[in-house]
Design goal:
Belongs to the aldehyde dehydrogenase family. Its EC number is 1.2.1.27. Residues 15-477 form the Aldehyde dehydrogenase domain. Pfam families: Aldedh. The chain has helices at 41-58, 63-79, 81-92, 96-113, 116-119, 155-166, 181-192, 207-215, 228-240, 263-275, 298-306, 326-341, 377-380, 396-404, 419-428, 464-470, 484-487, and strands spanning 3-4, 7-9, 12-14, 21-25, 32-37, 124-129, 132-140, 143-147, 170-174, 200-202, 219-225, 244-248, 253-257, 285-291, 345-348, 367-370, 387-393, 408-409, 411-415, 433-436, 452-453, 456-457, 472-480. It is α/β, with parallel strands linked by helices. The termini are far apart. α3 runs antiparallel to α7 and α4 (96-113) packs parallel to α6. It is built from 17 helices and 23 strands. α15 (419-428) links the parallel β19 (411-415) and β20 (433-436). It is globular and about 80 Å long. Strands 15-16-17-14-13-19-20 form a 7-stranded mixed sheet, with helices on both faces. A 6-stranded mixed sheet has the order 10-9-8-11-12-22, with helices on both faces. Strands 1-5-4 form a 3-stranded mixed sheet, with no helix packed on it.
Length: 497
């Protein structure tokens, strides 16, 4: 059965009237499981107008009432957790356990949005001058929009719209066309939680819809997660149209392995961090830097990776699923071939991996290179597949220099038993998110997701306090009240005693 994906525009779910159609396929065998009618220009305009009109009343709803909507929403998300994970797994190919993690990390942000009253508190100083007080309010911006990627169809939309809406904004969500059914279900549950008409809109489509969001003056802020090229386009186009933009782009995350680290912990963590989710994570560890004698562990890491087997979403023994599309697989295989041609040693090659009965799926087995240098394509480009590049460094200083020379700065980690080495690394490394004996240091929602350098374009990051600042504006008021002698007069005497 093929599902017809729905938009949610002006308080109504609709299949849309667009003439351009997009097939949604199952990555395990590339069969069509759903169809999208891309939103028309008129439908996008209606979504923007509806969100703009809804903002006039939603911004006046008391913050405690907005928080109650979020409380109901996070409860519904938890109640439907496994249902959401099943939808997500079937359209992304993720294993069920991985899909559940995707949903749960989104739920954590929705939970954080329930604290919106304290997050929006302003500041006050009494007597900044004689009889003059100054205080600030935090107020919503207006209509915000989110453009989200395929690899986390639950978590990343939930990074964006719950907190923005809780702050008093209205929101337009444009998810990836490759896995739109999970975002649709998120929106259905949000409506069930009691969100008023127009507060949230859902539009499906292509670059035409994106460009309308980037250029329409009613949209005040844009959030994006995706590839480097698209992230740069989103940031430049949005800011050229005088919008706030936060654009999370590519990554090349390094894990530095010191010889005093716990070898088995390193190997166990590196396997999951490098090929988990088929490597389709902007925080995946794609480069392992072995310092000194730690390089002697490379053969054992290869043995551990060789035991990893991809499979179907409901295969409990599968470590990860297929990559999202034939185009994604072709790109990964091209980079693997380039790595070999450029002189890297391919210790483990997953190029020809298949799953019995699903040979037409987008499968790539775990792949591992050594003798990788910084001028190779497999090092310079974000592969976004289950491929690990192993490099060597003589000292910690050499490893730090290597990581800091990378144009990306999303995440990094170090495995060591030395507090001194860990302290040096966290202080000197030019990366926004650092793990110490933690391979993928994604912060919980009361912090913010803080990529640096070419991994992020903007000022304020996703979720946490920075997200509140991104989607609100500060109003500062300075007041002076005169005493009774200054204001007294006919019929105006005030008894202040």
């Amino acid at each position: 059965m093929i599902t017809q994906v729905k938009h949610y525009i002006d308080g109504e779910f609709t299949h849309g009237s667009g003439e351009r159609n997009i097939d949604v396929t199952n990555p395990a065998n590339n069969s069509v499981i759903a169809k999208i009618n891309c939103a028309t220009t008129a439908e996008v305009e209606l979504a923007i107008h509806s969100a703009k009109e809804a903002f006039k009343t939603w911004k006046e709803v008391p913050v405690s009432e907005r928080a109650r909507v979020m409380l109901r929403y996070q409860h519904l998300l938890k109640e439907h957790h496994d249902e959401l994970a099943t939808i997500l797994a079937q359209e992304t190919g993720k294993t069920f356990e991985d899909a559940k993690g995707d949903v749960w990390r989104g739920i954590e942000v929705a939970e954080h949005a329930c604290n919106v009253a304290s997050l929006m508190m302003g500041e006050t100083v009494e007597n900044v001058a004689r009889n003059i007080d100054t205080y600030s309010y935090t107020q919503p911006l207006g209509v915000c929009a989110g453009i989200t990627p395929f690899n986390f169809p639950a978590m990343i939309p939930l990074w964006m719209f719950p907190l923005s809406i809780a702050c008093g904004n209205t929101f337009i969500l444009k998810p990836s066309e490759q896995d739109p059914m999970t975002p649709q279900r998120l929106v259905e549950l949000f409506v069930e939680a009691g969100a008023p008409k127009g507060v949230l809109q859902l539009i499906h489509g292509d670059k035409t819809a994106v460009d309308m969001l980037l250029t329409d003056p009613a949209i005040k802020a844009i959030s994006f997660v995706g590839s480097v090229g698209v992230g740069q386009y989103i940031y430049k186009t949005g800011t050229d149209n005088l919008k706030r933009v936060q654009a999370f782009a590519g990554a090349k995350n390094h894990c530095v392995i010191m010889p005093d680290a716990n070898k088995q912990q390193v190997i166990n963590n590196m396997v999951g961090a490098s090929v988990g989710a088929a490597g389709q994570r902007c925080m995946a560890i794609s480069v392992a830097v072995f310092v000194g004698k730690a390089k002697e562990w490379i053969p054992e890491l290869k043995e551990a990776l060789a035991k990893v087997r991809p499979g179907l979403w409901n295969d409990k023994d599968a470590a990860y699923g297929p990559v999202i599309s034939p185009a994604a697989k072709a790109r990964v295989l091209k980079l693997i071939a380039q790595g070999k041609a450029e002189g890297a040693e391919c210790l483990l090659d997953g190029s020809d991996f298949t799953v019995a009965g699903y040979e037409s799926g987008n499968w790539v087995g775990p792949t591992m290179f050594t003798n990788v240098t910084t001028d190779m394509s497999i090092y310079k480009e974000e592969i976004f597949g289950p491929v690990l590049c192993c490099m060597e460094a003589e000292t910690l200083d050499d490893a730090i220099e290597l990581v800091n020379n990378s144009p990306y700065g999303n995440g990094t980690s170090i495995f060591t038993a030395s507090g001194g080495a860990a302290r040096k690394y966290q202080h000197e490394i030019e990366v926004g998110q650092v793990g110490i004996n933690v391979p993928i240091p994604v912060p919980l929602p009361f912090f913010s997701f803080t990529g640096w350098k070419g991994s992020f374009y903007g000022d304020q990051h996703a979720y946490g306090k920075q997200a509140v600042r991104f989607c609100t504006e500060t109003k500062t008021i300075t007041t002076r009240w005169f005493d009774s002698e200054a204001v007294s007069g006919p019929n105006m005497s005030i008894n202040l005693k």
